[in-house]
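Entry 14. Two folds queued back to back today. First construct below, sequence then structure tokens.
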Amino acid sequence: MFEESGHIINLFLNKENIDFYRKNDKIVMKKGLVINSFMRGIKIINNKITTQIILDDKYFYLPDIEYNSDKNLLIAVINRDKYIEFMANECSDKDKIINILRKKNLPFQCTDNITLTNILNNM
């Protein structure tokens, strides 16, 4: 599906090994040994990380981040998932909350996650 030569960063969170790879302008997340998926809503174009969320046929864009290091990519992924979690917390309809949370990329909570904060501080 993709070449592993575009390896960006490896994380070990919640007893799960997660690798990030770059394939052209898209980011691929590999969990464990076999599960690969494109990161939804995140692209690298001209060394800028663009982030978007599509909800109810509307586009929500987060501010672009200059791609200088692996930390910038990780920050963009985490910020996108935090924004999704914030939107879900503001909603009262359970079905809509589930639909919103399906748009997350990372398989764990990003808001107030001490492990993620420690990883970012040590990069």
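Second construct, same run, same settings:
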Amino acid sequence: MPLVLTPQCVEAKLVMSQGGVPIINRWYVDVGASPTPAILALVSAVIDGWITTDYASQISNTVAFEQIICTDFAVNNGAQDIAVPTTTTGAATGAPVAANAALVASLRTQQTGRNFRGRTYTPGMVAGHVTDAQHASVGHAAAVNTAFTNLVSLMVAAGYKLSVLSAYLNNALRAVGLLTEIVSIITNTKIDSQRRRTAN
């Protein structure tokens, strides 16, 4: 996504790798004020704690959590906070499945349409997460859904809003980005591909 200046917006980027191949998840946070270095560090701390309590358990131990990069999206050349996660690898054991296999968490706002929905591809599936070549287990899907529901709640507890950032309107870049709060998560059992979410 191109940088479209967005008031009160922090981009939170989780940089991972598996077998030397980079994997990046990005989320956008409405922090309710102009982002400062202290706010960037606080958003990073929320992500860091969430990795340990929720996300790592659903990710193969062959996936490394390398960096949390929080960037001020309100200005050009915005400040960054770069941290190494406390939990450095996933915790799920078992044979890894194909590297591109991922479960998708659909991030929903109260509005409909592509401008108001986001997605996160959860990498690092293992054999115990799948029931056949096309589907994850109900349990894994539910656990991923709970993890992202908890991330929304953790941001709210910190005074922030996990949001969808809309950079386009009618196929043209917006002059100013639009943040819309995420209010629900939908995760089904269909296995998707994360190849477009890798950084190479």
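Quick look at the second one. Helices lie at 37-55, 138-157. The chain has a mean pLDDT of 92.
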